[in-house]
Write a structure and sequence with these properties.
With 97 residues, the chain is an all-alpha fold. It contains 3 helices and no strands.
Length: 97
């Protein structure tokens, strides 16, 4: 049972991060402004690449590592925050009359 717990505690932060990157990637593709779209997509792809790198470097220690890997969750939140700001700048403003 401890092995299942360790695997879950290893996979949860990375799985959540990848799911969030995919969700924001799909949202960023619908931004009409090409510059804002490019910045948002670049941030999402860079964050996804970093997450993949972290998985590749830590997968060997999944059964011996006691850390929860909160750092990947914090990095994901920061990257997606800036990607969301870029997407917000690319949305057209509502004209109130």
């Amino acid at each position: 049972m401890e092995a299942v717990f360790r695997i879950f505690m290893y996979l949860f932060p990375y799985g959540a991060s990848i799911a969030l990157y995919i969700w924001v990637f799909r949202k960023a593709q619908r931004v009409p402004n090409k510059v804002a779209k490019g910045i948002a997509l670049a941030l999402v792809v860079a964050g996804l690449g970093y997450t993949a790198y972290q998985i590749a470097t830590t997968v060997g220690a999944v059964m011996t590592d006691d850390r929860f890997h909160f750092q990947i969750m914090i990095i994901t939140i920061v990257v997606l925050f800036f990607a969301s700001i870029a997407m917000a700048f690319g949305e057209p403003e509502d004209k109130k009359e």
